[in-house]
Amino acid sequence: MNGKHYRYAATLVCALSIAMLATPTDAAAQRGGHGSVHSAGRGGPGRSPGGHHSAARHRSHVHHVHHMHHAMHPWAFRGPSIWVWHPIGFLVTTIAVTAIVVSIVDDDGNTSSSGNVYYDQGVYYEKQSDGSYKAIPPPKGAQISSLPEGYTSVSVGSKQYGYYQGDFYVEGADGKYVVTAAPVGAIVPYIPDSATEKESDGKTTYEYNGVTYDAVSLNGDTSYVVSKSS
Question: CA-to-CA distance for 7 and 18, rounded, in angstroms?
């Protein structure tokens, strides 16, 4: 091989190597950030808080990393997280060794074990008769020691809430976080991808786990406000 051909071959090899290294980065850029993870919208995990598209509905992507901080929003993103999130009804054969049995706090402040309900990384599971585990809505009063990676801080009046994948938490007297009803007026950057879209009198609303959301525009981005809570 002469010098000219050698230089050509070396250049081609370098170009191919760069392309191979760049591909994962490009793919990650397309998935992540505000525009993919939680709010890539049905028009844009699809819907994710990863990237905000004004025309697209930010809905949560089920199997991607969680949203990053975005300075445009008044809430604070606590992330990122690389955990896999499972929607309500999702079945798994096993759960992680980090899963814990959920404890429940009643209205009088008494704590008891939920029995066969487990929590791991933002998801609640109920053990089935065949030994598998089904993702379920968090039981009322369920408490956890720390909020899930990627949670969002939400203010309604003077009260602070932690929000994650359709679940709202308040801080308890003992420093733990307790599942609470969705507060009407809360504005969140995304809703779970499995939320149901409904049309009535020309207005589109979204329902998830008994909560109704209206889409609103904030700083050119689509967000969701709790309009009705069960």
Answer: 17
Under 8 Å between Cβ of 184 and 175: no
Distance CA 171, CA 224 (A): 23
Residue pair 104/139 in contact (Cβ under 8 Å)? The answer is yes
What Å distances lie between residue 89 and 1, 34, 162, 190, CA to CA? 63, 27, 23, 20
Two tokens at 85? 């999130």
* Structure tokens that stand for 2 in this block: 């002469």
pLDDT in tens, 49-65: 333 333 344 455 433 33
Contacts of 68 (CB under 8 A, 6+ apart): 32, 33, 34, 37, 50, 77, 79, 80
Q: What is the pTM of this model?
A: 0.66
Of 185, 211, 216, 217, the C-alpha closest to 196 is 211
Q: What is the mean pLDDT of residues 109-123?
A: 89
Distance set, CA 35 to CA 30, 150, 181 (Å): 8, 15, 28
Q: Give me the DSSP letters along 15-58.
A: HHHHHHHHHHHHHHHHHSSTTTTTT-GGG-----TTS--SSS--
Pairwise CA distance, residues 111 & 144, whole Å? 12
170 pLDDT more than 70: yes
Q: Are 54 and 222 contacting, i.e. CB atoms less than 8 angstroms apart? A: yes
Cβ neighbours for 220, distance < 8 A, ≥ 6 positions apart: 52, 54
